[in-house]
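Case study 2.
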Amino acid sequence: MKDGGAALSRWEDLDVDAQIDLRIAFGYYLDGLPPTCSLEAKVERFHRWLLARGVAYQDPNLESSAGVARSRGG
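Prediction:
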């Protein structure tokens, strides 16, 4: 994670250019992972990847994207 104890930036607070840059970088990261059709798995991957970069993300289309990892014991 970014800077040990540094506060997380909220995805919603990032400007559009920063969000696009992160989505592009995440796409390259996904190229190295096995494909999945599961929306929950996709959101969980994005959530964890962003956390490692100091960004908190919650998908507004799911009840709680943070709850996805918890519900699976992650």
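The chain has a mean pLDDT of 84.
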